[in-house]
């Protein structure tokens, strides 16, 4: 069951999904991500958790606020608006990077951290230079690069990224945010994280390769690393059953 329009809320200047009841499970998507990236995660956990997914303002932040710090501030304001506490944060790619900063800055608010394909140490990304605008086949190839099996790069997904890349203003913001993330290496900060942390990595991730998962595992004291074979940069999309099972086991082993 995919996320539907009835689950979508718009209030307080935020667009977000909120379903289920229980302790909050806050999901943060990546640079080219969308709410739909979390369809299978939402379906699996909505019966036992309050699943909340804010739409990250990748393209709507004022230019002077565009960057990693602006996204972190946005999520802080969203959490305050919703009055959330005892939060489990789950971030993919850039969303994981935002989650790491929040976990360090507000450790009393966050109780568990789950990262999958997170940036923060190294990321081989399409951002950082101007993508080839107007070249559909190139965009299709790059979207396919996210996955081990290119079949997951659906026409709908490619069309969505193609539309984004077609906008010069959106392209500029993507580049600014990507460069901001690349500059913000967290190696020295990660040992400060004391909360239980799960790292779920695609064994075939070419954007944040397996060695990045190992490095996170070495630097975050209370962390567990799990790999998924034949899987790229978005395990929750490519192998949702395995991903959800690993997350579920982690949550049960570290109850609130």
Short key terms for the protein model shown above:
globular; 8-stranded mixed sheet; alpha/beta; 256 residues; single chain; Rossmann fold; 18% strand
Task: Describe the overall structure.
About 2% of the residues have low confidence. β3, α1 and β4 form a beta-alpha-beta unit. The chain has 256 residues and is an alpha/beta fold. The chain has a single domain, classed as Rossmann fold (3-Layer(aba) Sandwich). Strands 1-2-4-3-5-6-7-8 form an eight-stranded mixed beta sheet, sandwiched between helices. It is globular, with a radius of gyration of 17 Å. α1 packs across α9, α2 packs across α3 and α4 crosses α5.
Q: How is this fold's topology laid out?
A:
Elements: E1 8-11, E2 14-19, E3 24-28, H1 39-45, E4 50-54, H2 68-82, E5 87-92, H3 94-105, E6 110-116, H4 136-144, H5 155-165, H6 168-183, E7 197-202, H7 210-219, E8 223-228, H8 235-238, H9 240-253
Parallel strand pairs: 3-4, 3-5, 5-6, 6-7, 7-8
Antiparallel strand pairs: 1-2, 2-4
Helix pairs in contact: 1-9, 2-3, 4-5
Order of helices and strands: EEEHEHEHEHHHEHEHH
Instruction: Give the amount of beta strand, in percent.
Output: 15-25%
Shape: globular
- The overall pLDDT average reads 91
The count of domains is: 1
Please identify the top-level CATH class. Alpha Beta
CATH architecture: 3-Layer(aba) Sandwich
Radius of gyration: 17 Å
């Amino acid at each position: 069951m995919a996320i539907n329009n009835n689950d979508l809320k718009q209030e307080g200047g935020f667009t977000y999904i909120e379903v289920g009841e229980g302790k909050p499970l806050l999901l943060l998507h990546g640079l080219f991500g969308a709410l739909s990236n979390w369809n299978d995660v939402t379906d699996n956990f909505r019966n036992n958790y309050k699943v909340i997914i804010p739409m990250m303002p990748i393209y709507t932040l004022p230019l002077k606020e565009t960057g990693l710090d602006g996204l972190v501030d946005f999520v802080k304001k969203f959490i305050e608006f919703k009055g959330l506490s005892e939060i489990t944060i789950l971030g993919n790619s850039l969303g994981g990077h935002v989650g790491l900063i929040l976990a360090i800055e507000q450790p009393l608010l966050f109780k568990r951290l789950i990262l999958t394909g997170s940036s923060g140490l190294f990321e081989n990304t399409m951002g950082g230079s101007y993508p080839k605008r107007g070249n559909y086949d190139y965009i299709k190839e790059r979207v396919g690069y996210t996955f081990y099996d290119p079949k997951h790069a659906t026409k709908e997904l490619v069309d969505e990224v193609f539309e984004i890349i077609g906008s010069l203003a959106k392209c500029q913001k993507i580049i600014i945010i990507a460069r901001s993330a690349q500059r913000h290496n967290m190696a020295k900060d990660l040992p400060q994280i004391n909360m239980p942390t799960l790292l779920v990595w695609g064994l075939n991730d070419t954007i944040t390769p397996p060695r990045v998962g190992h490095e996170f595992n070495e630097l975050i004291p209370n962390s567990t690393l799990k790999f998924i074979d034949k899987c790229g940069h978005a395990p929750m999309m490519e192998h949702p059953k395995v991903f959800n099972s690993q997350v579920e086991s982690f949550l049960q082993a570290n109850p609130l």
